[in-house]
Design brief:
6 helices, C56_PfpI-like, Type 1 glutamine amidotransferase, 184 residues, DJ-1/PfpI, 12 strands
């Protein structure tokens, strides 16, 4: 396993509706590799998770608000899914700007399930091959992406990687790809 000692990986969520395993599984993988995961949201306080978009999950403390993030300190940015989470994120201009800034800085970005909605809003999918929850396929194609039905897809975007997966069943491959990309 790659070593992430001294590296920070940000997890960008809205304040509610994040799919719990899509937050906690890659979070644990970052910790297991020696990295420091931080929970980032537009508002301070806590983030409420869900399971299967319906069942209540846990509450997680926000480590930093979007405006407190120093892009240069990040090794990667992860956007977990959850339909409400992803739909809310794409309406938050500061969250969308953070995604653009991270990619422009050459830092890998990973999105799972409905998370690619934020990538569409950031305008970073044109000409890129990626995957997502199947219901986003048309949205991604309309934004200029090539959508494929694969467990994990890593595409080069500028000088960095964009990593995408379809759903919680893909979390082992997604988490491994996140750790590998964050390790550099």
């Amino acid at each position: 396993m790659p070593d992430l000692s001294g590296k920070t990986v940000a997890f960008l969520t809205s304040e509610h509706g994040v799919e719990e395993p899509e937050l906690t599984t890659p979070w644990q993988a970052v910790q297991d590799a020696g990295g420091t995961p931080v929970l980032v949201s537009a508002k301070p306080g806590t983030v409420s998770a869900v399971n299967n978009d319906l069942d209540p999950g846990g509450d997680y403390p926000v480590d930093r608000t979007v405006d407190q993030v120093q892009v240069g300190e990040l090794a990667a940015l992860v956007i977990p899914g959850g339909t409400v989470n992803a739909d809310t994120l794409r309406t938050q201009s500061a969250s969308v700007a953070l995604v653009k800034d991270v990619l422009a800085a050459g830092i890998p970005v990973a999105a799972i399930c409905h998370g690619p909605w934020t990538l569409i809003e950031a305008g970073v999918v044109d000409g890129v091959t990626l995957t997502s929850y199947p219901s986003l396929a048309t949205d991604l194609r309309n934004a200029g992406a090539t959508w494929v039905d694969q467990e994990v897809v890593t595409s080069e975007v500028g000088t960095t990687s964009l990593i995408t997966s379809r759903n919680p069943g893909d979390l082992p491959a997604f988490s491994a790809a996140v750790v590998e990309a964050a390790a550099g």
